[in-house]
Amino acid sequence: MADLPPCPACASSLSYEDGALLVCPECGHEWARDAAASHDDAPRVHRDAVGNVLADGDAVTVVKDLKVKGASSALKAGTKVRQIRLVDEDHDIDCRIDGFGPMKLKSEFVKKVQA
């Protein structure tokens, strides 16, 4: 029996082949064999609202007003954020904003500041 990779969605080792696809019987996820190898090896590229590649330590500006849960006011468009940290979570950016404190932002709502 061929050594099949675990499911990328739930990490189950019970995957099986169904034609050109691999299938997980536990969660029902289907994927191509070559996609599984290339997806795990490639690092994720974070892009801002206009397509610029972001890196740790970049400075960005917020492109639209964002409601902040638990705050009395919104985060206004044009707010500068310095020294961002990129993470692979539901929100792409960890940062600290003056006047708001620690925040998590999505990269689609920021624009890289060109130095």
TrEMBL record:
Q: Where is the Protein YjdM N-terminal domain?
A: 4-32
UniProt cross-references to Gene3D superfamilies, sorted A to Z: 2.20.25.10, SH3 Domains (2.30.30.40)
- The Protein YjdM C-terminal domain sits at 46-113
> At the top level of its lineage, which domain of life is listed?
Bacteria
InterPro entries documented for this protein: YjdM (IPR004624), YjdM_C (IPR013988), YjdM_N (IPR013987)
Q: Can you tell me which family this protein belongs to?
A: Belongs to the YjdM family.
Q: PANTHER family given for it?
A: PROTEIN YJDM, PROTEIN YJDM-RELATED
| Name this protein carries in UniProt | Alkylphosphonate utilization protein
